[in-house]
Amino acid sequence: KNEVEQSPQNLTAQEGEFITINCSYSVGISALHWLQQHPGGGIVSLFMLSSGKKKHGRLIATINIQEKHSSLHITASHPRDSAVYICALRGYGNKLVFGAGTILRVKS
Amino acid sequence: DAGVTQSPTHLIKTRGQHVTLRCSPISGHKSVSWYQQVLGQGPQFIFQYYEKEERGRGNFPDRFSARQFPNYSSELNVNALLLGDSALYLCASSLAVEVGEAFFGQGTRLTVV
Fold it and tell me: Rounded to whole angstroms, how far apart are CA atoms B89 and B109?
């Protein structure tokens, strides 16, 4: 069983829709990252969470440590949000353990 | 202020050759980590270096090695390349070993033919 599972694997939305991407994990963590990867490979760190909720613009990330679950929400989605969204765990060592990613396509 | 820079951006090698990939961390960052991302999968941890010492190693064969220089830049070396080594190699820098936020480079796309 993978330490981190993301759902859905693929998501197509219409512009303006509210989007939720989920991440469940099975190990203890010190923090959870949400990352965005555009075609060509570059990865941008969106959030790092160890508890609660964070908001940046149209993006909101939440984490429930007891349930070992995190969600990334995008409000008023836009075609430029199309990317791969990756959940990554930071354990009590230093490496990041990545989920397989959610491919998001927002159509205009 | 420059972010994490990796070179080269793309590379084509033949099976059996070796390759050296380079990473310059953000100024002031002392930790560099390397990840391999095979097409369609999430990145996998290869190495972490901090203050020129290896601080973590993932489940990769000994053909993979790395080092960190006094200026905190890093090299990833892969010997005896296999077709399966074709991947995007990502470098991430962070301030210290445990401190949270990691900043990623654009990656080096290696194709082994």
Answer: 6
Q: Residue B25 has what DSSP assignment?
A: P
Structure tokens at A3: 């330490």
> CB B106 to CB A42 under 8 A?
yes
* Residue A95 at interface with chain B, using a CB cutoff of 8 Å: yes
Give the start-end residues of each E strand in chain B.
Answer: 5-7, 10-13, 19-24, 31-37, 44-50, 53-57, 64-68, 74-78, 87-94, 103-104, 108-112
**Inter-chain CB proximity B104 and A90 less than 8 Å:** no
CB contact under 8 A, B56 and A94: yes
What is the spatial distance between Cα A105 and Cα A85, in angstroms, rounded to a whole number? 11
pLDDT in tens, B58-103: 999 999 999 999 999 999 999 999 999 999 999 999 887 765 678 8
3-state secondary structure of A69: strand
Chain A nearest-CA residue for B42: A100
The chain-wide mean pLDDT, for chain A, equals: 92
Tell me the pLDDT tens digit for each residue of B44-67.
999 999 999 998 899 999 999 999
CA nearest A38 in B: which residue?
B106
Q: Is A76 helix (H, G, I), strand (E, B) or coil?
A: coil
* Contact (CB, 8 A) for B54 and B45: no
